[in-house]
């Protein structure tokens, strides 16, 4: 009688190679695809979050710009009043040295 020993690991690996090769390749492709989908979804969410932060920043800057335009227009109207007072009404600023302060 021949006593032969069989290497069970080698038999199992050969069976997988022979009968389940396509299945293993398919399983590997599905796993790779799932990991790539998860990565892309994560990056997309990060980009959306960054876009929302930029939108908020843009709205703040726009509001600040509008406030500065309003302030500029208000300052222009004061200058117009001063210019009108100087030109049409001959008004001037008084000299501080010629001012008399009366205290009761």
Estimated share of beta-strand residues: under 5%
Characterize the largest beta sheet: strand count, sense, and whether it forms a barrel.
Answer: none
Rounded mean pLDDT score: 88
- Principal-axes shape call: rod-shaped
Number of domains: 1
Features:
104 residues; mainly alpha; 0% strand
Task: Describe the protein in words.
Helices cover 77% and strands 0% of the residues. It is built from 2 helices and no strands. It has 104 residues and is an all-alpha fold. It has one domain (9-90). The protein is rod-shaped, with a radius of gyration of 42 Å. The longest helix is centred in the middle third of the chain and has 68 residues, at 21-88. The model has no long low-confidence stretch (mean pLDDT 88).
In short:
By secondary structure, this protein is an all-alpha fold.
List the SSEs and their pairings.
Elements: H1 8-19, H2 21-88
């Amino acid at each position: 009688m021949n006593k032969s020993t069989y290497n069970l690991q080698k038999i199992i690996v050969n069976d997988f190679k022979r009968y389940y090769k396509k299945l293993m390749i398919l399983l590997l492709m599905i796993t790779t695809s799932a990991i790539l989908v998860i990565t892309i979804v994560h990056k997309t969410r990060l980009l959306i979050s960054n876009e929302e932060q930029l939108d908020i920043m843009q709205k703040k800057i726009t509001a600040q710009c509008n406030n500065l335009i309003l302030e500029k227009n208000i300052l222009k109207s004061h200058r117009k009043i001063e210019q009108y007072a100087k030109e049409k009404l001959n008004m001037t600023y008084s000299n501080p040295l010629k001012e008399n302060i009366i205290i009761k």
